[in-house]
Amino acid sequence: MTRKPPGQVRADLAHRRDPGVRTALVEGVSARGLSRIAQLERADLRPGAAAAAWRRWQAFARASAEERADMLYYGHAGCCPDPRDDRDVLERVLRVLPLRDARALRRRIETIDSACGM
Question: Where are any strands of DSSP class E within the chain?
Answer without folding.
Answer: none
